[in-house]
Amino acid sequence: MTTTLYTPANVTKSSKGITTFVICCRLTCPYRRIIQLYGTDHISGVTVGNEYVLNYLTSKSSDDPTDANGLVAAAFLQAKIKDTRDMLASLNLDKTIPVGNGDAGSYTNTQILGSVDYFMSNIHPWFGHLPVDQSATWSEFP
Questions:
Q1: Does residue 111 belong to any structural domain of this protein?
Q2: Where are the alpha helices (DSSP H) in the chain?
Q3: Which end of the chain is flanked by fewer CB atoms within 10 Å, N or C?
Q4: Hey, is 75 helix, strand or coil?
Q5: Has residue 14 been placed in a domain?
Q6: What pLDDT sits at residue 30?
């Protein structure tokens, strides 16, 4: 069995209605402890951010991960990806653990893709409102 450790994005609203998205950097400490306790045999990667770009762009009324808002989201993620890589490197592990990102559909850009070892596209047939017998073909590419 392989495990991917997720660093989720948190969404908070201030009293002024401003939405911010913060990746839980403090979670790198528990991850550090988990890796130190259990080793790396069952870890295939660490995924930083889950639909962060989608949520950030939605908060900005945008849907283009390559526009100015997408670049802001990318810069934020790139810093968190670097923090995660630095944390992993500080452990002097017996193997290199890939660091990746996951987002909805095609909500990524070259800045993010250039910073990660893998990208996971979150695509779910129920978003297409399909019956179960058609769901397997929903994510096929021509």
A1: yes
A2: 28-38, 52-59, 68-90, 110-113
A3: C
A4: helix
A5: no
A6: 76
